[in-house]
Every structure is written in C-alpha cells, then in structure tokens.
Amino acid sequence: MAPTRSNTADKNIVDRTKARRNADVARTVRETRDRLSQQPGNPAFDREMIKLHARALTSSAIVLPFLAVVVALAGLFAGMGPIVVLWAATTAAAYAGLSYYAQKISRTEAGDIEVSEVRLWFLASHVVTGLCWVWFSGMGCSDCQIDQFPIIKAAILLLAIAATAILAYALRGAMEATFAMPVAAYVILGSHLWLPVEAVMAALLTASLPFFSYVSSHLHRSAVMLLSFRTEKDGLIAELETANAISDEARRRAEEANLAKSRFLASMSHELRTPLNAILGFSEVMAKEVLGPLPNPTYRDYANDIHDSGEHLLDLINEILDISRIEAGRYQLQEEPLDVADTVEDCCHLIELKARNKDLRIVQQFEHDLPPLRADERAVRQIALNLLSNAVKFAPTGGEVRVRVGWTAGGGQYIAVKDNGPGIPADEIPIVLSAFGQGSIAIKSAEQGTGLGLPIVQGLLDMHGGRLELNSKLREGTEAIAIFPASRVLHTAQTEPPRRKAAG
C-alpha cells in the first residue's frame, strides 16, 4: 500500500517526499537572491548606500569647511582682502547645510527613506557646494603677494576633489555634481593657458576629475558588494535559525513519540504476557497429556504448535521491550564481577540442543585465567545468546559454530562467534544492524526472526562502553565480535593482559 501523505502542518516543516524538488527550489531561490542582491538598483541597497553617505558626511562634516578656513586665513595673510573671508563663510555655510541634511537622513529609518527624493536633495546640496568652488576657481589675486596663485588654486581644488571622492563615494554622481563646474571654471576663468605651468595644472586638474570619479565608483561597487555579502550572511543566519527551530521541533515530536511508544509497549507487555502465560501453560499441559490422554494425536501436535508459537511471541515481546528500554536509556545495568568464559560456556550449553537438531558442532576456544569483567551478567548472557542463536540459525546443517573468548589488543575482552553460513553482503551490514532489519538471505530462506537480535547486542555493548564488529563474506560465513573495553577488566597483580594482538 502506498504511503499516505499527511494533510497536517507537519508536511510544511519537513517534506521528505520531494527531496529533489525541494533542493531545486531552494537552489533557484538562492541564485535569484544572489543575483538581485548584487544589482546596484536594489532599493534596499540604495537606502543603505544613502544612509552610508549621510553617515560619512556627518562624521567628516568639518573636513572641507576646515580647508576653506585655512585657505581664507592664508589669503588674508597674502593680502587677498575680505573677499576670501566671504567665500570661506559661504562655503562653510553650504557644507553646514549639507551636513545638517545628512544628519537628518542618518536618523531616519531606512524603510522610511524615499530614495529618489533624498538622492535629488543630496545632489542639489552638492551642486550648491560646487558653486562655492566655482567662485573660488574664478577668484583672482592681482594685489596679493602670491606669484603662482592659479597653481595654488589648482592644488587646493585637487585636495577638495580627493576628499570628496573618499567621503561621497556612496552617492553616485556626487563627484560630478560638485566639481564638474569648478574644474570648467578654472580652465576657462582661473588660469592663463598660454603659460606652460598653468596649462599643465589645468590639464592635470581636468584629468583628475574622471580619475577620482573612477576611484569613487570603485569604492561604491565595493560597498555594494559588502552589503550584498552582509545580506547573504543575514539570510544564511536566518536559514540556520529556521533549520534549528525545525530541528528542535522535530526532536521534541520524536521524543514525544518515543515516550508514547514506551508507554504503549509497557502497558501492552502486561496485557499480552498474561494471556500468553496461560496459553503456554495450557498448551504444555495438553501436549504432555497431564490430565489424561488425547484421543486424537493431531490435537497433541496442535498443542505443541500452539506452545511453540506462544514462546516465539513471548520472545518477540521481550525483545521489543528490551530494544525500547535501551533506546529510551531506561535499561539499568546491574554491574558485578563475572567470568566471561563461564557465562559464555553456560550459554553454549543452553543453545546446544538447538545445535544438535541441525547436526552442528560448537567449538569452544577460551583463553585461560581471564580476570573478572565488571558488567551486567544478564546483559552479557543476552549478548552471547543472541550471537549464538544467529550463528546456529544461519549455519548449514552439519556445519560448525566457533566460539572464542579472550583478550583484545587494547587490553579488553571479547566474545567472538563465527559460523560457516552463507554470509552477509557488505552493503547489507548496516541494514542487519538496524532495528527490525533483515538481510536478503534471511528473507529468502524464511528464517524466523524479528531483526532485533543484533541491535539489542549493539545497544547493550554501547551501555558497557564497548562495540560490536561484524565481519562477513559471502559463502564463507559471518563472525560477530562483542568487544568490552579495558576499563571494565578487573586486573589483579597476577592477571595482566598479554602483550600480543588478539581479536578486535
């Protein structure tokens, strides 16, 4: 039956049914956002650039007025008269008005800025300051004591152009609006082009305007790129926060589902075990004819089948409860010193009847004088029985199961169970180690099982700080190695791990 898709809001959180389509949509949205964020006409970036321009003018409001004051003082000292003072006052007033408007814009929220209107006001203010520099460009000095006054004017204009290029790069066109007319006025009115020095200065000043315009434009592009990177970073942070919120919500729901599952299994175990015990008891009484002979032998066979099925169902319930407790972290270890070899030997005796039914030979290879291991005896028995049951289940009739117990290379102890069965393909080992996972060979051979034996072994070993290794080759058999760490070995003065490499 096809899986039913949920119509609830869960599918809006994580929709795993369309992973490829979701990835394509996410990639398209990301590429579109990158393309739009890097376009200079992006309104959000235009507002940010206007705010950046306003902050630059506000923080450096004194630079160009200070240059004008210095020029006025130098002009007075050189005998230019009050005209230079009037020019300096007018220029300072023009820059003060520009700074006042910039301060007003810098205090305005970016979303409330009308880009076109504010841009026009800024350009108009720059034009006003440019008219002040036009006045300076046409200013003469016939009675002053400066021999090369046009050259000095050109140098001062170069300083003003360079400062404006650095301060006003965030507003496109600010350089041209401010100094296009002053440079033209200097070339036409403020210099004598027939003099070589003044002609060179006029050419230098004329060439400096496009050069500094290019510098300002380059700074503008760099600022836009930084803003785009910042926007992308903010977008990634937002996506990470969203993914984190989704992960937290999914984890919360998974914990609730796991808790509900544990409660369900805890309640169902009692409800199922009670009638199962009755079924097992009554079927055993009937099969052994305790209360009298059964007239029909088929009934006795049916009673044996009922008893076997009940035992299988009870084992299944116990395994499900064990894996549930392990996954929920509620499996309590009752640690005590135990002899691993003796415990595994007892398990071999328990499994021997099943092995004889398949004409299997169990070969035991235990290292002598192993020190005690601090572990849960019930868990170690379950580990050994699960590994032995799997080996007996898949070993061929007349085959062999080899059981080893000994030292590991790191000073720990191990339990290894190897059969000469069909083996497990390498790509199916993760499936076999997952809960309810069964390999293709087990499915084809219709071997009875739940796929919980090895996951329970793995969980119990993890609780002991150990690990499970599964080595298998097709048509050569499988070896499962349960490894306990050296920290659980109770060493004494007479029992030290041998200095040689062992299994695991």
TrEMBL record:
<feature type="domain" description="Histidine kinase">
    <location>
        <begin position="267"/>
        <end position="488"/>
    </location>
</feature>
<keyword id="KW-0812">Transmembrane</keyword>
<dbReference type="Pfam" id="PF02518">
    <property type="entry name" value="HATPase_c"/>
</dbReference>
<dbReference type="Pfam" id="PF00512">
    <property type="entry name" value="HisKA"/>
</dbReference>
<feature type="transmembrane region" description="Helical">
    <location>
        <begin position="84"/>
        <end position="102"/>
    </location>
</feature>
<dbReference type="GO" id="GO:0000155">
    <property type="term" value="F:phosphorelay sensor kinase activity"/>
</dbReference>
<dbReference type="InterPro" id="IPR036890">
    <property type="entry name" value="HATPase_C_sf"/>
</dbReference>
<keyword id="KW-0472">Membrane</keyword>
<dbReference type="InterPro" id="IPR004358">
    <property type="entry name" value="Sig_transdc_His_kin-like_C"/>
</dbReference>
<feature type="transmembrane region" description="Helical">
    <location>
        <begin position="118"/>
        <end position="136"/>
    </location>
</feature>
<feature type="compositionally biased region" description="Basic and acidic residues">
    <location>
        <begin position="12"/>
        <end position="36"/>
    </location>
</feature>
<feature type="region of interest" description="Disordered">
    <location>
        <begin position="1"/>
        <end position="42"/>
    </location>
</feature>
<feature type="transmembrane region" description="Helical">
    <location>
        <begin position="183"/>
        <end position="212"/>
    </location>
</feature>
<dbReference type="GO" id="GO:0009927">
    <property type="term" value="F:histidine phosphotransfer kinase activity"/>
</dbReference>
<feature type="compositionally biased region" description="Polar residues">
    <location>
        <begin position="1"/>
        <end position="10"/>
    </location>
</feature>
<protein>
    <recommendedName>
        <fullName>histidine kinase</fullName>
        <ecNumber>2.7.13.3</ecNumber>
    </recommendedName>
</protein>
<dbReference type="InterPro" id="IPR005467">
    <property type="entry name" value="His_kinase_dom"/>
</dbReference>
<keyword id="KW-1133">Transmembrane helix</keyword>
<dbReference type="GO" id="GO:0005886">
    <property type="term" value="C:plasma membrane"/>
</dbReference>
<keyword id="KW-0418">Kinase</keyword>
<dbReference type="InterPro" id="IPR003661">
    <property type="entry name" value="HisK_dim/P_dom"/>
</dbReference>
<keyword id="KW-0808">Transferase</keyword>
<dbReference type="InterPro" id="IPR003594">
    <property type="entry name" value="HATPase_dom"/>
</dbReference>
<keyword id="KW-0597">Phosphoprotein</keyword>
<dbReference type="InterPro" id="IPR036097">
    <property type="entry name" value="HisK_dim/P_sf"/>
</dbReference>
<feature type="transmembrane region" description="Helical">
    <location>
        <begin position="151"/>
        <end position="171"/>
    </location>
</feature>
<feature type="transmembrane region" description="Helical">
    <location>
        <begin position="56"/>
        <end position="78"/>
    </location>
</feature>
